[in-house]
Design goal:
The structure holds three protein chains of three kinds. Chain A contains nine helices and ten strands. In chain A, α6 links the parallel β7 and β8. The two termini of chain A are 31 Å apart. By secondary structure, chain B is an alpha/beta fold. Chain B has two domains: 166 residues, Response regulator (Rossmann fold); 143 residues, Rossmann fold (3-Layer(aba) Sandwich). In chain B, β1, α2 and β2 form a beta-alpha-beta unit. The longest helix of chain B has 25 residues. The model of chain B has no long low-confidence stretch (mean pLDDT 88). The C terminus of chain C is likely disordered. Chain C has a two-stranded antiparallel sheet. The longest helix of chain C is centred in the N-terminal third of the chain and has 31 residues. In chain C, α1 runs parallel beside α6, α2 runs antiparallel to α3 and α3 packs antiparallel against α9. Chain C has one domain: ABC transporter involved in vitamin B12 uptake, BtuC. By secondary structure, chain C is an all-alpha fold. Chain C starts with a helix and ends with a helix. Classes of the chains: A alpha/beta, B alpha/beta, C mainly alpha. Chains in contact: A-C, B-C. At the B-C interface, α1, β2, α3 and α4 of B face α1, α4, β1, α9 and α11 of C.
């Protein structure tokens, strides 16, 4: 269980551009939940993810995992339990390393990066198998550098890498936004499959209302640092894109898609 | 793979062509003297010209008895190394090294060969470990006593002498020690400020002026002397005379110097080299020489501007340091 | 012909000795993407420590290990200043470099020369036992070649270890390192430590070779290192199977070769730096033109 308790987040505190985003913000995410987060630009979606991952500091409140506070834990330590895929496909992989090297790096997460061989040849078949599940033909490009792959291919590799080792949480930060519609669809199907298979607790920020409605077990809409709309369980399952779009238009904010 | 082969071929070709060219150039029948000068600098240039004159004085003629391969390292130690190695590879008859880094480089490059090294413009060959082996030369040790005496004669009332020096320069550090040890005998105290880079020199000069020293005295410190003009600008404004340590500094505006004429030092070095080339002695058999006679050089314009009077005994011995 | 051979040997030796410095700059500049100016201080640091140790009669090969350790320490300082005190990369290097200028002089007293009687890695007993029959310049070549190759092999192997992969990742995409639950600051420090250890080793060997330490011998070494890295990697850009370390090794030898050619054809020394700059530019442009050519073909 992941809990955000009474979070206060102020940007540029003490300056003329001071902006209070969250004030006494709380949110609980149950284990195994797949939460879709929608909302206009500046509504606090990405800040929320950054607060969970420790990428930005907070001025008040607590972040708890399984009842234990992680708010004083440095960002990199939190990633022991978190896998994250970014909007920019370049963020989740190393461009000048090969697919094999990237996969090996990700495969070692949670263990020591010592002076033993960086690539375990015995794992090659396993990586091929993982990549083959993408259906992009990447399993035959293990020795190709990431920089020569397309954005969609890179994002697919990033997704595989983020979930290659056991993590509890998968953070998806608009991870289909930079992709063409067809590739986005492929990545989304793959994401859903991985979340189900590995029984992950997932949080997905997206501007694509259709994805938010179609995937996940719970949906929240955010505006100005507050949750203004929420559906879960059977209600969420029965939700149509138009219902959400309606709310979106109602609060007269720009539609994401 | 083709690319690599092509590249390697090009690189090797270029290297061989140019080296062959140079080798051909160096294949004259006369003996070659390699002169490695650390950088271009009036004193060091004078030293080299004196060296050539010294060879001529000894009856050796350029083009007939020897040819000169002159290189300067632009004050870069790594280049001085490569210059020395070039001389060694070409098996020159003799290496003439002007200034310490060039001398150390030549000495190292000649380690395994029997090439004599003759150095010049080195203050302390013992300290620089250049006093044993097939090497000899001349030292440009400062005439500290003569300089202190000269200052006392020109400024009978003076108490403090300000000196700027580079802390990393062993020659300067030892000169400062000598100045401090001897100043008392002449009734002076020394106010020395060390710098680590040329950019600090003018700041240090300001600070000496602020300490109200009666005069400045220079060492043969390249870092300091390199910006002599801007030091003089400040001291002239403050009305403080600056004494040089050799003739070139006096030409550039110092009032006077009891010191070395690098041209003479070079001539002395040339004479040593001539003995070696003629087979009269080996470099290892000749102890290094310290210049015996110091000259007194003055710049009358600077003396007048500083309102100094030259006593008759000094006037009798001095030489006007002016470019012809 | 002898002249030619001797010249080639001594130039090659210089290139090999300085290649270690190039490896260091390759790690910081090319792998870590960190413009590390510590080099101008850690290079003479290696020489200063070596000069003092050689004078005291320390085993020549031991001096190399000590120089490596002290150089590593210099890298650690820059790393800590940058990572823990949050000083910008360029400034962190400048601070350490400036401090090292004084520290080097404290270590050595002043510029110093090592007497000829002291044994160096080129004249030590084990070397003489094996290669004693050869002239000094050959011994220098063989010993430098061995060290440069060992350095290259160790580095190549390291870059393929888990730790090495992480190092390559941090310069490429430091966000990923954080995602892998590793402290990217620590990885950067590791890189700086390795790089400056190599640079100090290079300075130490120069001290063995020249038997001298000079406080100003570090000036311009960053520029030399950058030039060799860029020359090397540009020349081999389209040949991905050539390792980075090989490329900079060749870069270092080519650089020293160019200086040698300039000296040999009697170019005035005052023009040497200009020639170097022109060569540098030439290789960059040449490299780009080639790359463009390949693209046009594809």
């Amino acid at each position: 269980m992941l809990e955000l308790k009474n979070i206060t987040k102020i940007y540029n505190p003490g300056t003329i551009t001071e902006m209070c985003l969250f004030e006494d913000f709380s949110l609980t995410i149950e284990n195994g939940e797949f939460l879709s987060i929608v909302g206009s630009n500046g509504s606090g979606k990405t800040s929320l993810l950054n607060i969970i991952c420790g990428s930005i500091p907070i001025e008040g409140g607590d972040v708890l995992v399984g009842g234990e506070s992680i708010v004083r834990q440095q960002d990199y330590k939190r990633y022991n339990r978190i896998g994250r895929v970014y909007q920019n496909p370049a963020m989740g992989t190393c461009p000048s390393l090969t697919i094999l090297e990237n996969m090996s790096l990700a495969d070692n997460k949670g263990q020591r990066y010592n002076l033993t061989a960086g690539i375990n040849k015995k794992r090659r078949a396993y990586y091929r198998e993982q990549l083959a599940s993408l259906g992009l033909g990447l399993e035959d490009k293990l020795d190709v550098k990431l920089e020569s792959l397309s954005g969609g291919q890179r994002q697919a590799v990033a997704l595989i890498m983020a979930t290659l080792t056991p993590v509890d949480f998968l953070i998806l930060d608009e991870h289909t936004a930079a992709l063409d519609p067809k590739t986005a669809e492929t990545i989304m199907v793959l994401t859903d499959k991985i979340v189900r298979e590995k029984n992950l607790t997932a949080m997905m920020v997206t501007h694509n209302l259709r994805y938010a409605v179609q995937y996940g077990s719970r949906l929240i809409m955010m505006n100005e640092g507050r949750v203004i709309y929420e559906k879960a369980g059977a209600e969420k399952a029965a939700l149509a894109v138009d219902d959400v779009l309606h709310i979106f238009t109602e609060i007269s904010i720009e539609c994401g898609n | 793979m083709k690319n690599i082969a092509k590249l390697t071929r090009i690189a090797v070709l270029v290297l061989i062509l140019s080296l062959a060219f140079s080798a051909a150039a160096g294949c004259s029948k006369t003996r070659v003297i390699g002169i490695s000068q650390f950088g271009e600098h009036a004193s060091l240039d004078n030293c080299r010209l004196g060296f050539l004159q010294g060879l001529k004085d000894a009856g050796l003629t350029e083009g007939q008895d020897f040819t000169i391969d002159y290189q300067n390292a632009g004050f870069d130690g790594a280049i001085a190394t490569q210059i020395a190695q070039t001389f060694s590879a070409k098996n020159v008859a003799l290496m003439c090294a002007i200034a310490t880094p060039s001398a150390t480089a030549c000495y190292a490059a000649a380690e395994d060969k029997d090439i004599p090294v003759v150095f010049s413009a080195i203050t302390d060959p013992v300290e620089a470990k250049l006093d044993s082996g097939n090497i000899t030369g001349t030292s440009d040790k400062l005439a500290v006593d003569a300089q202190l005496e000269l200052i006392r004669k020109l400024q009978p009332e003076a108490d403090t002498i300000g000196i700027l020096y580079t802390t990393s320069e062993p020659n300067s550090v030892s000169a400062i020690a000598e100045y401090k040890a001897k100043a008392g005998q002449y009734g002076f105290t020394i106010e020395a400020i060390g710098v680590t880079a040329q950019s600090e020199v003018t700041l240090a000069a300001d600070s000496l002026i602020a300490k109200q020293v009666d005069c400045f005295s220079n060492l043969t410190d390249n870092t300091v002397v390199g910006v002599l003009a801007s030091i003089l600008e400040k001291t002239n404004e403050a009305g403080i005379p600056v004494y040089g340590s050799e003739v070139e500094q006096v030409k550039r505006g110092c009032v006077a110097a009891a010191g070395i004429d690098y041209y003479q030092l070079g001539r002395q070095t040339g004479a040593i080299a001539a003995r070696i080339l003629k087979g009269e002695a080996k470099a290892s058999e000749i102890p290094y020489e310290v210049i015996s006679e110091y000259g007194i050089y003055v710049n009358s314009e600077a003396i007048a501007a500083a309102n100094l009077t030259v006593p008759a005994d000094v006037a009798a011995r001095m030489t006007e340091a002016k470019d012809a | 012909m002898n002249v030619l051979l001797d010249l080639a040997i001594s130039t090659l030796t210089q290139g090999l000795i300085y290649a270690l410095l190039s490896y260091g700059v390759y790690i910081t500049y090319k792998i870590l993407d960190f413009p590390d100016l510590t080099v101008d201080g850690s290079f003479p640091l290696g020489a200063a420590v070596t000069a003092v140790l050689l004078t005291r009669g320390t085993d020549p090969f031991l001096t190399l290990l000590i120089a490596i350790a002290i150089g590593a320490l210099a890298g650690l300082v820059t790393g800590l200043i940058h990572v823990r005190l949050h000083v910008r990369d360029l400034l962190a290097g400048i601070i350490t470099m400036t401090a090292l200028f004084s520290i080097n002089l404290q270590i050595a007293g002043s510029n110093m020369t090592v007497e000829r009687a002291a044994s160096t890695i080129f004249t030590a007993d084990p070397v003489m036992a094996l290669l004693g029959a050869l002239p000094l310049i050959y011994r220098k070549l063989i010993v430098s070649l061995l060290i440069a190759l060992i350095g290259k092999l160790v580095l190549d192997v390291y870059l393929k270890t888990k730790n090495g992969l992480l190092l390559r990742a941090v310069g490429d995409n430091s966000v990923l390192v954080t995602s892998l639950a590793k402290d990217k600051g620590l990885v950067k420090i590791t890189g700086l430590v390795i790089a400056n250890a190599l640079v100090a080793l290079s300075g130490a060997i120069v001290c063995h070779e020249q038997r001298a330490f000079s406080s100003t011998m570090g000036t311009g070494q960053v520029v030399f290192g950058l030039a060799t890295v860029i020359i090397g990697t540009t020349l081999f850009r389209s040949m991905s199977f050539v390792k980075g370390t090989t490329a900079v090794l060749v870069g270092s030898i080519l650089y020293k070769g160019c200086i040698q050619i300039a000296i040999s054809i009697g170019l005035p020394a005052n023009l040497l730096k200009l020639v170097t700059a022109v060569l540098f530019l030439g290789i960059l442009v040449f490299g780009h033109a080639r790359k463009g050519g390949v693209k046009a073909h594809a």
